Amino acid sequence: MKEIQSKKNTFIKEIKKLTQKKHRTQTNTYLIDGWHLVQEALQAKVPIKALLVTPRGLSEANGQLDDYQEESYLITEEIAAMLSDLPTPQGIFAVVEKQEQNLQTLTGNWLILDNVQDPGNVGTMIRTADAVGFSGVFLGEGTADLYSTKVLRSMQGSNYHLPILEGAIPPFLKQLRSAGVTIYGTELNKEAVPYTELPKEQTAAFILGNEGQGVHPELLALTDKNVYIPIYGQAESLNVAIAAGILMYFSVS
Questions:
Q1: CA-only gyration radius of the chain, Å
Q2: Where are the annotated coiled coils located (predicted)?
Q3: pLDDT under 70 in the chain at which residues?
Q4: Burial (CB count within 10 angstroms: exposed 0-12, middle 13-18, buried 19+), residue 213
């Protein structure tokens, strides 16, 4: 295992840049921080470009890194503190190569996110879609970056369990409809129906929109039906991740 002692090391500086979306895009890699996420990546057998571990982290590894000696680097606690945004870093990081998603079919249930900008919400919704057993998640333009630190932490490894696609939403809706998937938008208007009136379908997609503005009107015009979740108290609205969870669990219950 190679050792790195200095925070000024060129390799460490390049890894630190992975906190920036631009650098993640240029290198086609991303950084994960913490034991649970690293274990999820190892179990998923995704391409690991580098593993960085402190002496404390190495003592907790219990042989889990034995097959990755060539990719492993022993780093100091100071370097770990520089790479992590956690108050107390766990002492293990991995540089992971992004993977293309090649789907053979689009059937089943899908969650579609339109310009959802809060990374915690995005990660939570992906994690919930994983828990519910959805077929996949589609991240539309303007949505928080899948590989940002906060999204990765909120997903807790769910990105290794189900397909996550990115791009423009209208072409994807066309593909879903061709596959027989019913598309629901989320909007409160006179033509929308309560979510409890939806049929129990195994081929449904739900579009959730921006925290403040909701789903774009042009996307709502492309849906089969728009739905809403009734509010019985005095709150103005539901958190988008909570709303998504309600709709997803209802659709499969």
A1: 20
A2: none
A3: none
A4: exposed
H or E element at residue 131:
helix 119-132
Any idea which residue has 């579009």 for tokens? 207
CB contact burial 114-149 (16+ within 10 A = b; e otherwise): bbbebbebbbbbbbbbbebebbbbbbbeebbbbbbb
Supply the pTM of this predicted model: 0.94
Contact 141, 115 (CB under 8 A): yes
Token output for 64: 């889990």
- In terms of Cα–Cα distance, which of 183, 124, 209, 115 is closest to 159? 124
Model confidence pLDDT, tens digit, residues 20-62? 999 999 999 999 999 999 999 999 999 999 999 999 999 888 8
Q: How many residues does the chain have?
A: 253
Cα–Cα distance for residue pair 36/42, rounded to 1 Å: 10
Q: Cβ neighbours of residue 225 under 8 Å, at least 6 residues apart?
A: 182, 184, 185, 192, 193, 198
Question: Under 8 Å CB-to-CB from 15, ≥6 apart: which residues?
Answer: 31, 50, 52, 83, 93, 95
Provide the 8-state DSSP code for 158.
G
How far is the C-alpha of 66 from the C-alpha of 180, rounded, in Å?
A: 47
> What does the pLDDT read at residue 101?
83
Residues 209/174, Cβ–Cβ less than 8 Å: no
